[in-house]
């Protein structure tokens, strides 16, 4: 230890402050990791479902399927993407393109509260229903 003018450098109070700062940082990192662990899988499945929605409307437009077929396909795949059974699914033909809209809310439990993730996405086919682009 170095002695400067009768005092030690790096006193116990300074070390205690560093420990407290370390604990605060670790708590913040732990909370962020826990929230990420709860939310990231829900968001990933939702984005995967949106991709499936887009693929379904494009497939329907290319193969001359109707909007009811799209709705049926989306309803059949709800469990696969962990979408709640009470999701509102609508599909229609708008300006010769097939559109599908899915809406739902999923509750994500956190330690002291509950986050409500809202999914409300509309996708539109990239080609028109009659097959022309």
Summed over residues and divided by their number, the pLDDT gives a mean of 88
What is the radius of gyration computed over CA atoms, rounded to a whole number of angstroms?
Answer: 26 Å
The DSSP helix count reads: 2
Major sheet, described briefly?
A: 3 strands, antiparallel
How helical, in percent, are the residues? 40-55%
Q: What portion of the residues fall into strands of 2 or more residues?
A: 25-35%
> Which structural class do the helices and strands define?
alpha+beta
Kindly, what is the distance between the CA atoms of the first and last residues, rounded to a whole number of angstroms? 79 Å
Sequence of strands across the biggest β-sheet: 3-4-5
Taken in chain order, the helices and strands follow as EEHHEEE
Broad shape: elongated
Number of strands: 5
Contiguous runs where pLDDT drops below 50 for at least 5 residues = none
Describe this structure in words.
The chain starts with a strand and ends in a 9-residue tail after the last strand. The relative contact order is 0.14. The longest helix is centred in the N-terminal third of the chain and has 51 residues, at 12-62. The mean pLDDT is 88. The strands form 2 sheets. The protein has a 3-stranded antiparallel beta sheet with strand order 3-4-5, with helices on one face. A two-stranded antiparallel ribbon has the order 1-2. Helix content is 46%, strand content 26%. It is α+β, with helices and mostly antiparallel strands and 133 residues long. It is elongated and about 75 Å long.
